[in-house]
Amino acid sequence: MNKEKVLEVKNLSVSFRTPNGLVRAVRDVTFDLYKGETLAIVGESGSGKSVTNRAIMGILARNAIIDGGEILYNNQDLTKLSEANFHKIRGNKIGMIFQDPLSSLNPTMRIGKQITEAMLVNGNRVRNKELDLYHTEYHDYLNLIEEIRILKQEIKDFAYEINVNDDLSKEEKKEQIKELKADRKARIADLKAEVPGLKKVYQDKKKEAEAIVKKEYDEIRASGQAKVKETQERVAKELEVIKAEYAKVLAETTERVTKELEALAAEQKDALDSKTAELQALKDKKAEYAEAHEFKAAFKAKKQELKALKKDQKDAYKAKQHEITAVKEDYKAQLKAKSNEVDDAKEELRRQFKVTKKEAFERAIEIMTEVGIPEAEKRFYQYPFQFSGGMRQRIVIATALTANPELLICDEPTTALDVTIQQQILNLIKEIKTERDLSVIFITHDLGVVANMASRVAVMYAGKIVEYGTSEEIFYNPQHPYTWALLSSVPDLDTTDRLISIPGTPPDMLFPPVGDAFADRNHYALKIDFLEQPPYFKVSDTHYAATWLLHPDAPKVEMPKVIRERVAKYNQRVGKKEVSK
After folding, report:
1. Run of H or E including 467
2. Distance between CA atoms of 546 and 482, rounded to whole angstroms?
3. Separation of alpha carbons 49 and 527, rounded Å
4. Which of 206, 256, 406, 523 is the most exposed place for a label (fewest CB within 10 A)?
5. In this structure, what are the phi and psi dihedrals at residue 146, rounded to the nearest 5 degrees?
6. Pairing mode, if any, of strands 407-411 and 94-97?
7. What is the pLDDT of residue 578?
8. H helix or E strand, kind and range, residue 489
9. Helices 389-401 and 111-121 meet at what angle, rounded to 10?
10. CA atoms of 432 and 446, how far apart (whole Å)
11. Quick one: average pLDDT of 250-262?
12. Could you tell me where the beta strands, DSSP code E, fall in 19-141?
């Protein structure tokens, strides 16, 4: 594959300290992520998927130990990166979507504030410009401090590991701990000797950066303030013209409307007197009506005519008065428009120095609309409990996208959602990935979820990747018994029989198996599976599996019948003649 590598994970191992010993959560994991692709990491709960990706994000639990390996991003090893430097990457370059949107959101805070919070906190453009200018030197200094901290922590972690190793005698433990301390302290002493020099380099560079940025932003401020002043002066002159024109138009309109109202009042008075006279004449002729109900009907009709006339007169009066109101409202609109011109000039100047609330609001509305939240401006001010599960997940996605990351980690983002909403969220992630040319790591326990969205698939079990390949290779030509088991447990539209469950339980990673971790649950396990871990066997240039069944001397074993039939059926549907071999 000749694509650009965005992320390289090399031989990563992560353990967790517990009162009973070390839990080996991730063991020697290696994979690459390329620009614009989706890599799915699939496996049962506890297989190490989330721990691997939390290590990438630098958000492991405090009792976690990175036993070895590298996570390379932009030529930086994230396992040795200081928290201050990680802060520039986490969220800004690498975003993450968690599986439970409700627990990812603060229930007491409006969602608009949650979406814009990071933009406002990290939006000091002057400070960011300074940091960019001396970032390399500051990065080297902080990472040296971090390396010293890691070495000190290794003394505690590895001493703990030695102490819980029951295969060593008390004397052997003491000797190994002594050697460990001597080695780490010697390395710490060498690194500490470099600290003053690196600190001086970064401080000198910092002063230089501050001077450069101050000069640049003083010029921007002077230019911006001059523009604001120019706008204010121009607007003041234009307002004088508008005020004079308004006074003239208002006086003319008021005079005209007053005359028209006087004429209208006289006309209305005559009409009203006429109708009143007709009503009185009807009363006088009451005795002429033979039937009382005939008089009542005629009288009611005349009263309705009088009422309608009064209403028409009132509406006509209001219409005339509205002409004056319209002139005043037009004047207010012109004043506001001119005021906005000054405000816009000030806003433009402020944005040179930081992300403003208005800018953050506009960006939030844009992203909320992008992820499919209707009436974004209205819903900006609502709370998480006022949204459905699918909408809350869209909010979490919107929050992750505010910093324009180039890598997005999705940690089982559809687990808490029903099936129809799952498909909507999956389609949304696919659309955003394509539009923004994102690289995506998608974590799931369900192979069916990633069938149509993953470029490549890595299958994890007991902290190790046991098989990886393209999506088509994993679904059409799986090689590891664990992948067979996962596929056999996933239904399709034609499934009528009971699904096949995976027998047994995952191994206790306090005591990792000597051989293949899946051996105890594997119907096809060989004797060597219990004695030695299998290496990766090459199936194709893009497809590898860690199973002894691929060894040239191993007995030939076919994949389960349910998978063979399913693959044959899929191949037939897409016009293929035979199953991949």
Report:
1. strand 464-470
2. 10
3. 28
4. 523
5. -65, -40
6. parallel
7. 45
8. none
9. 10
10. 22
11. 83
12. 21-34, 38-42, 64-73, 76-77, 94-97
